[in-house]
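Dear Dr. V.,

Thank you for agreeing to look over these. As mentioned in my earlier message, I'm a first-year student in the group and I'm still getting used to reading structure tokens, so any feedback on how I've presented them would be very welcome. I ran two proteins. I've put each sequence directly above its structure. The first is here:
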Amino acid sequence: MSTPDLLLAIGGAAALLAALLPGVLAKRAISLPLTYLAGGVLLFLLPLGLPEPDPVAHRLALEHITEICVVISLMGAGLALNRRVGWRSWGTTWRLLGWAMPVTIAGVAGAALVLLEWPLAAALLIGAVLAPTDPVLASDVHVGEPVDVENADDEVRFALTSEAGLNDGLAFPIVYAAIALAAVGGAGWAGEWALVDVLYRTAAGVICGLLLGRVLGRLFFHTGKKKLRLAERHDGFVALAATLLSYGLTELAHGYGFVAVFVTACTIRNAERGHGYNSVLHGFVEQIERLFTAWLLLLLGGFVAAGGLAALTWRGAAVGVLLLFVIRPLAGWLSQAGGAAGPRERLVISFFGIRGIGSLFYLAFALGHADFGVPADELWAVAGFTVLASVVVHGVTATPVMRRLDALRARR
């Protein structure tokens, strides 16, 4: 059997399981990502002669595959949210983005400086890489289908979905800062970084997302000619077109495409909130996202099986453990003081800062732009271990915790 044929067969089997497993695992204390991850480990341990999933050797391919997966998931997250964007209605989100995320970056960077004795650029990079929560792997704690009820999303699911939708793009300025620090050194780059990487790129992402979302929303729902009104045709693949169009045009304008895609999705959702076409678009995106997730987690399992964590030291593992069990929970909890979430909801929101595909993208992207003074396999070991630990810990706890929280909420 040739390797390409084997890879096609495995890819097809993974796609089939991506359709079957959600129903099988529903309400069980094991997540779909955890199942894929375990399957990837077992698959690559078999004597099948599969190519080694080396992120150092295949950095560029990994960067683009994870990039596509993240932008698709961002479109799905934006389409699923039922609350209109507002200062008060999104209060928990702004707290998580404005307080929890910077504190998390600083905490992880500090841990890397103290425990690993990495250069400042590498410590800042790992902080930025591991800070964003993941819109791909957190389906068990995210909102479900779009519905015509604005207050349908509970605070936990809404906060984790909206946070993941935005912080994947907002981590980019810190990644660029780490790249500049590694490549240039000193602080001479700070002025240009603040103007271009922080202000211009973020503003371009928001503006492009709003403009494209309004144009597409009108085309989908409100254009005068029925033949051009795409909502009448129920073609779900248009969501993929909107994703790629928003991301590609924004990147051509040197803005943050991740931000633009999420803003585009929210704007399309607001164009006609009660229309069933929103569910069609979201359903298609969710299927594509599930397919990419299955393939990527099989590769992550293969990375573990092939010895990808060999460069991991106990100090590197400690950085990941501190992030998952101390830094993120503490930062998330403190950021919500005086907010809309109750004590139990604050605890759950703080704990479920799931790490995943976005972290892998950022690390692959950064390593293509600068040398950070730390071996690439060591950086990958720390990031890979943290994602692995997050998939296991959050995957096992998500279903029972959310079930218990829903039961308490219903009783109250």
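The second protein is here, in the same arrangement:
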Amino acid sequence: MKIFLVGGYVRDLLLGRKPSDRDWLVVGATEEEFLARFPGAQKVGGHFPVFLVNGEEYAFARMERKVALGHRGFEFEFGPHVTLEDDLLRRDLTINAVAMDLETGVIFMAPGAYEDFRLKRLRHVSEHFAEDPLRVYRVARFAAQLPDFSIASETIALMRKLKRELHTLSAERVFMELKKALAAPAPRRFFEVLLEADVLDVHFPEVQALVGVPAGKNKHKDEKDAFEHTMNVLSYLKEPLLRFAALCHDLGKALTDPDLWPSHHGHDKLGEGPARTLCDRLRTPARWKKTALMATTLHMKAHRLPEMRAGKAVKLIEVLARFPGGGVRGFLDLCVADGMDADVAENLVQRSQKVLAIRLPERYHGLGPKCGEILLNLRAQAWKRFDLKGTLVTTWRVSFTF
């Protein structure tokens, strides 16, 4: 029996990246022999042997055979006769088809892997790549995680052939890959690679629809189209949830009247439908859906905050304070990525924090619906008396008579 450290942990070691969870591969053993060595192991694999030992997974080497559509349509062959080489050849990309013998320190690789590491290239291990449609999204996600890696043209061609089978994937699996891509250093590459492989429209047709649509006029006029603008906004931000907000914020531009382009009047309202549809298709958590819908419907109003009347501005910031992507500050970070001046946004954040800190005086408690009106008036008066640096420029007092 031999046990190898395998997959992503070894890959990241070779790339000089900080490795994450360790995966172990068991070669040349029966289940009984493995349990004799690890008597406390817990079996968790259903289709092939996978055991948990001290919280880490030990999977038996296996071969796979495609028998049906989808990423679950496989039969598995495992046992002491399956070699390390057999197991590496079933993997998706050559940079993931690597293993380390901890006893000797020897690294084992699938054919061509060394050259792909040297050239910084993402390339499929074998034609078996095309048997699992989920690998399309995995390649796009790895492109986002490794932005200095190119993708082999023959791998893009195989991804393109899998377009029909992508419909067999569960929404949960697609969203999982999306979420990982949005946490990667270069999330825009996830969507750009899917576009290059002509598969973006399978699960992200609303994003595909932005291709060729003018980004807008004035501050957006130098961007190729609304897709490029969306990718630029997404790239500016750091948090995955905010990046998802950026992905959805301009979906309505694909629905505006082409005769009026490059203007997109009303695209914020028009964007609610496609944002909701995208979230429902991917079965996003409620928090992600709320983030997308708020970003889509409110980003144009937030851009107008500096000129807005006090009462209207306060109502808006009270809503933005409930934005799942970081409250008022998170929403205005999105606006900065979308073209708002960063100093203006920071001043608005400071102003909002001071105004939202105002609470209803105790003497007005118990007045029913009037309480909300009084608090709004108090905050509106404060908003008018703060300059754009968030500084109170005059003293004030508000009284109410009933």
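From my reading of the second output: The CA atoms of residues 58 and 210 lie 44 Å apart. Residues 304-402 form one domain. Does that match how you would interpret it?

Kind regards,
E.
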